[in-house]
Amino acid sequence: MKRLLTIQDISCVGQCSTTVALPLISACGVECAILPPALLSNHTAAGFKGWSFCDLTAELPKVEAKWVEQDIKFEAFYTGYVCESHIDPILSIFKSCAKPDAVRIVDPAMADNGVLYRGFAADFPTKMARLCNGADYLLPNLTEAALLVGQEPKLSRYTQTEIESLIAKLHAIGAKTVVLTGVSFNENELGSAVSDGKTVEYDFNQRIPCMFHGTGDVFASVFAGAILRGKSALEAAALAADIVCEAITATDRDHWYGVSFEKAIFSLASALQ
Ligand code: PXL
After folding, report:
1. Which of 19, 24, 40, 44 to mutate to test the pocket of ligand 1 (most atoms within 8 A of CB)?
2. Taking Cα atoms as reference points, which of 100, 151, 139 lies closest to residue 8?
3. Which residues contact 115 (CB under 8 A, 6 or more apart)?
4. Among 157, 141, 272, 270, which residue's Cα sits nearest to residue 212?
5. Which residues form the pocket of ligand 1, taking CB atoms under 6 Å from any ligand atom?
6. Among the four residues 117, 129, 215, 245, which has the most C-beta atoms within 10 Å?
7. Beta-ladder partners of 10
8. CA 240 to ligand 1 centroid distance, Å
9. How far out from the chain centre does Cα 62 lie?
């Protein structure tokens, strides 16, 4: 069994980050170690009135030192929501705790719908770009992609030419494979563009006309698990999108802060059996 380290916050309530990654990656049949660089009472998205934030930056080098001392290494890293002070310690762990050919999966979780998440400064995307440089798989949504390359996020539909130009810029900041989510060329479909730097391939599902929190984390977690189980980037993106759709469909209308991904775990485990 392969061992992946996920580095992202623990939001105690809210079905995002680590509380999504751990169960979904486990369901993929991949061992999931965790390193939370911050502990929050809940996520920061609209709906919650506020949040507590315990920064664990100082803990990161201490954890790293113990892992180095004991020769604890990982086949893969998957990073999600992190803050500026976490980036250098994470880059150090990428180097010191990597098995040969360890895979880096970076979800630059920082923005959606044209705006940065509450709490991030306007220059944060330039900091996040440092974590994206060298990513084997970079998983931004359209807003994150634009901010990472210094473009104004666009809320109207992108053309295929615009999508592919955005992808080229993401490769230029150092991403090997780009999986751009939230791509849509018509009203009925929503999906992702997967590029290895030579070819761009697309995967689409029927659009579900609702906005849910935490779907990016479900997508990235399933993607990471599927990659470690030997799927191609396109196959992993397609499975991740199917699981997101199943989770959304299974979520009660009044369940506002996340998606009921728990109800899609059986499908996920079956798909990767
Ligand atoms: O789902 C991404 C995410 C993760 N962690 C925290 C967040 C968010 C999105 O808002 O606030 C703390």
Report:
1. 44
2. 139
3. 143, 153
4. 141
5. 9, 11, 16-17, 40, 43-45, 81, 109, 117, 214, 216-217
6. 215
7. 39
8. 18
9. 25
Q: Which residue among 17, 20, 106 is best mutated to probe the pocket of ligand 1, counting the most ligand atoms within 8 A of its Cβ?
A: 17
Q: Are 115 and 157 in contact (CB under 8 A)?
A: no
Which atom of ligand 1 is found nearest the CA of 11? Answer: 12
Threshold 0.85, pTM exceeds: yes
**Cα dihedral angle (202, 108, 46, 259), rounded to 10 degrees?**
50
For β-strands 38-42 and 31-35, DSSP reports them as unpaired
Whether residue 210 has pLDDT greater than 90: no
CA 120 to chain centre: 17
Question: Of 178, 136, 138, 184, whose CA–CA distance to 160 is shortest?
Answer: 184
Summarize pLDDT for 52-80 with one digit per residue, the tens.
999 999 999 999 999 999 999 999 999 99
